[in-house]
Amino acid sequence: MFFPVDLRGRPGTSARSYPHETTTSKPVVPRDVLVTWYAVGRRPPALHAPYRCRVALTSAHDVRDALAELADPARAETLQRFFDTGPGGDGDGDVFLGMPVPVQRRVARQARGLPLEALAELLASRVHEHRFVALVVLVDRFDRATPVEQAALARWYFEHREGVNHWDLVDLSAPRILGPRLVAGKRDVVAGLAASERVWDRRIAVLATGALIREGELEPTFALAERLLEDPHHLVHKAVGWMLREAGKRDEAALVRWLRAHAAVMPRVTLRYAIERLAPALRQELLASGRTQQLARRSVRRKTTRPQAA
């Protein structure tokens, strides 16, 4: 039985997987150890060992170089379609290098010590992966910071949120950085973001309330959802539905009461996201109720706007 182990001690990886990392000598893994561990469906401990020597990335230039070496043009083309980077799309102007999220996170681990000036430089880049890595580093730093440092990092994030300009970047950072500030009582920031003309600010506001939901506080999410019922953007509709669904995990009865009161005016995508975890019969009831009331309102509007016969 043969189990390929490359110089990095990981099976099935190619030499270009870690071009910016130096390697040590090939690990010696006894054959009987491999057979025993694979026989029980587990990877042997030797294959989990870090057989590569990571090079610390200490500047924005280092991060850009590391990501450029990992670029995959074919994957980049697919990602640009998926993120709608064409003119007028949600990701208009975004540039992708083309790499999976785990690879970007691995680069971010090497850049944990980046100064805020370097993070700001990466967040200002048109390249999506540059901004993603910067936010991963920022979230990691926030998680390890003291309360005073967290307050400063949250202010820095708020001031540099112009680079947080796609749904994956918002979802990665807003709940982890602004969310804890809401829990700490800094609620005014959400109202300002929710009133912004920038769609990403409104999505940041919605996602940040997820931290309050985890603490069992649902009213801010319900209030913000009501405020954004007529929002024109589908990515805000989806975010609101997602947070309503999360609120329902904490208190299903409260969610159902809120949905029954607002189903008639909710965007359908928001309603569908919100009811995903409810019982099938209840889902059908809410969908039918919302649809019936919407049709009734449209009928009334048509009658009131129809010209009178002479």
Tell me about this structure.
By secondary structure, the protein is mainly alpha-helical. The chain folds into three domains: 1-55, no CATH class; 56-144, Leucine-rich Repeat Variant, CATH 1.25.10.90; 147-310, Leucine-rich Repeat Variant. The chain is 60% helix and 1% strand. The chain contains 16 helices and two strands. It has helices at residues 31-39, 60-69, 73-82, 101-110, 116-123, 128-144, 147-159, 167-183, 188-194, 199-208, 210-214, 219-227, 234-250, 252-262, 268-274, 280-305; strands at residues 22-23, 52-53. A two-stranded antiparallel sheet has the order 1-2. α6 (128-144) runs parallel beside α8 (167-183) and α10 packs parallel to α13. The protein is globular, with a radius of gyration of 24 Å. The chain starts with 21 loop residues before the first strand and ends in a 5-residue tail after the last helix.
Describe the structure using short key phrases.
Leucine-rich Repeat Variant; 2 strands; two-stranded antiparallel sheet; mainly alpha; single chain; 3 domains; 310 residues; disordered N terminus
> Percent of residues in helical segments?
55-70%
Average pLDDT:
82
- What general form does the structure show? globular
CATH architecture of the largest domain: Alpha Horseshoe
Number of domains: 3
Strand percentage lies at: under 5%
Instruction: Give the CATH topology of the largest domain.
Output: Leucine-rich Repeat Variant
Strand order of the largest sheet: 1-2
Q: What top-tier CATH class of the largest domain fits best?
A: Mainly Alpha
Report the biggest beta sheet as strand number plus sense, adding barrel if it closes: 2 strands, antiparallel
Low-pLDDT ranges: 1-29, 33-38, 44-53, 299-304
Global structural class: mainly alpha
**N- and C-termini, Cα separation:** 92 Å
Order of helices and strands: EHEHHHHHHHHHHHHHHH
* Quantity of strands, as a count: 2
Radius of gyration: 24 Å
Count, helices:
16
